[in-house]
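Deviations from the work plan: none for this task. Representative record:
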Amino acid sequence: MTSILISSSEEFSGKSSICMGLGKIFQENGLKVGYMKPVGNLLIDVHGSLTDEDSVCIKQLLGIDDPDKYITPIHLTDSLIDDALKSVEKDLDERLIEAFSAVSKDKDVVFIEGTGGIGGGSIYGLSDPEIARKLNSKMLLVTRFDSIFAADRILCDLRIIGNDDMLTGVILNEVPENMLERVSELVVPFFEKRGIRVFGIIAEDITLRSVFISEIVEELHAEVLVAQDKLEQLVERYFVGAMEVGAAIKYFRRQPNSAVITGGDRADLQMAAIESRVKCLILTGNMRPSGAVLASAEEAGIPVILVRGDTMNTIEKMEHLIGHANIKKEVKLERVIELIKNNLDLNAISRSIGVDLNI
Amino acid sequence: MLEKMFNPKWVAVIGASRTEGKVGRAVLENLMESSNNIEIIPINPKIDEILGLKCYPSILDVPDGIRVDLAVIVVPAKVVPGSIDECGRAGVENIIVISAGFKEAGVEGARLERECISLCEKYDIKMIGPNCLGIIDTSSGLNASFAANKAYKGNIAMMSQSGAICTVTLDWAERIGVGFSKFISLGNKALLAENDFLELFGHDSSTYVISAYLEGVKDGPEFIRISQHVSRSKPIVIVKSGRSSVGSRAVSSHTGTLAGSDAAYNAAFKQGGIIRSDSLEEMLDYSRAFSVYPLPEGRNIAIITNAGGLGILAADACSNKSLSIASFEEGTIERLQEKLPAAANVYNPVDVLGDAGANLYQHALDMVLDDINVNGIIVLVSPQAMTDVPGIAEMIASKIKTSSKPILCNFAGGSRIAAGEEILNVHGIPNYPSAERAVASMNALCNYYSIKNRKQHEPVKMDSDSEFAHYFIEKATSEGIRSHGLESMDILKAYDIPVVPSKIAKKLSDVISSAEEIGYPVVMKILSPDISHKTDVGGIRLNLQHADDVERAYKSMMSDVKHYMPDARITGVQLQKMIDGGKEVIIGMDRDPQFGPLLMFGLGGTYVEFLKDVSFAVAPISMPEAKKMVSSIKTYPMIAGVRGEAASDIDSIVQTLLKVSQLVTDFPEILEFEINPLMVMPEGKGCVAMDIRFTLNV
């Protein structure tokens, strides 16, 4: 059995996706895969007990049946932090090691997902490098390469890890299209020269940044007024409909996979969105549209969802949702696997933890 | 095709009612007051007889010998599909669904409406409505509506998308005795819509004038085609509401459709030969003018007044509408002088003075009517103490009946001119309440004279390398590229539109060598699918004279663009030959949801964008339409040559407009298109496209 801890210097860098994708690929190659996220920070209640949202999702997608209490043995709660600050002993290391031995039983590889940023959890002794040391795991760094400063972050992360041998390599994730050439021609050789292995570059991907209408409905606590059966579609971006109709039509039809946020009283913009065949209409302020508009939306198969919050509030939520949505659906998992297979050196990753995939 | 809809022998009322105040009763009563040739069959499963007529439980129970030509349906919305199905099985071919509660009411209503449509298609039934007032045909004597007013016989055909506006118009018409040939409430236009009735009115011998209130059209291109044809023989006057943003919001909310761009409607109406009125009042004013008067053969107008002030107002109004104040022949002036008092004004506007009686008015009118320089006359009457209002009204009415030139009157005032107005009404002649309204109607008559006599031109078919253009569009479609800019200028070459010599470069060294190859001075433009307004992000550098200029421009441009749009994908820069000595114009296209490709032309530059000085036409366009687009902008003199400046090559603009018209007609995938700027050189030296932008529906 071998294991690897997937870490990152920032949140929403793609750790879960990498765990999931690599896990699935390793499974396809006949390996028995285990998964754990030792410290759960996205706590949800599943059948009466607390666990982590990422864990539940990955557990299900990888078909792992280890109990939740081992997959995520520690929950990042206020009391955990307060106790750490008061130096109350909580036997976290024992819980960690006990859980790991349970999830690694009869497994070939265990993927361990870090919590938030690389140094997070230092106050209770469970930062990513500390966990890796305690479990005798190697680490893999996933970095969201949104600007050239990401290179600085990687070098800093290396100092946090402290031991160069512990880091197997890095994955440069979500690289904007306009930076791809620069990253591959300059950044990768820069790291390689310093002995840091780059396993691959994954460009920003529209499908993965997209969000399902059903997720929008859930996040905004919205009411679906029509086209309830059309919620499993992806929205790439959103527009705020506050402009004049002629201009709105131009914007809407340039980006058809979008959601339009507008007021319930803006029938003109609602119809412009429907005519432009956007993916979804989000009406704010709990103002219901006219029956005629709803009828047109239903005929066009465009979900109309009603939210109580005002436009500003809704924009904030959408801003958070798009680009940060979890990989809950098969469509996205398939895309993750495709991107990993096409862009990462899987043999190098597997060999770095002593497994031979031979792909 | 709709003969039996408007001239039925047997009419069934499904949902006929005994209860007063119910729509089912009102429809029945109106039908009973219709022509004696119409037989009425009430349908109601709960009763045997209504108002002395035998009532049947269902249309399927009507005896075999009776063939129902028209069924008027007034049952609740949810049972309407069942009634239509029965009509279909009974072989009824025409129905009017008056019932409301369909698409206008919401999702369930829309479902019912779709069900009605599919049943009508299944049985080949023609349907008016749902959610309408009904129809009236004064020639056949049919009143299949629940309107409370009666319609007089007349020659105006009216259709309206609003039932309430039908009621308002009928009420107004009843009071002043205006008649209609046909009156149609369109309702939700689920099947039959404005195009069907435009065609019907066009063929209807009892209709001289077509008027309509519309909130939108169902099939824009067909609407233009039919209007072009019908307007050659009959004037079409339309009020299209939802012009403002607030109005268009109301249209969308009311009908669940887009009100549509007003520029597109204006262009479509112009191309279709439709006279657009801004209000219901204007529509009725114009319709009455067309219904009564002959057309003036020119725009030279004479004004006869008994009050100087009114005459001046009318003259100003004429000037505002681009009507000319006619110059009288010498003989006319002499003959006017013979009878009019010395203080009178014998020049146009003719002032017969405040004490003028019917005789003096008649003399002036006769003289002016005889003048060959006069095409139409506006008569203004103010109620002075000694004015014989009824006598003047009688005299004018008799002149109007025999005159080959239009004589429009404004008896101005209130109670003291009421008698004159009444006399005109009796003769079916409109009195326009103000000089301005009389002039506006005169202008409508003049405009229609031009429309009626205009030559019809087919759109020009321009040559193109359609194979290349197809390849280009298919490639972009397969790659999913929606927004195109400078890198796609080759598509213009396929349509033989001259393009500025240019090169694309991605690295500084290539940028400099490209500039050297093109030859200085050059222009540098940023290439990015994410940047549409290059100037705003520092993405254009003009007049670069040597390699140093180019290098500085390149470095500062990259810095600027990254600063303003850090996320933009930059694919390089384009170097163009710097061209000067020309004038910048814009040719664009927006695909309008109702009418399709709406071409736009305007002068380039910042101020013109602000002034919105642009012209529009729906493609494909004819040669005269292309010329008109160019010449109709306010700043046309700036390209035609002003203050000794050389004229620009207008012919090359016209040719480019025709080529763009062809391109956007050939490829419905193009949603928006713009050549901006098109640099137009002095006459004979052509034009060249400097930049383009278009969006594909991929």
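The first helix of chain B runs from residue 3 to 6.
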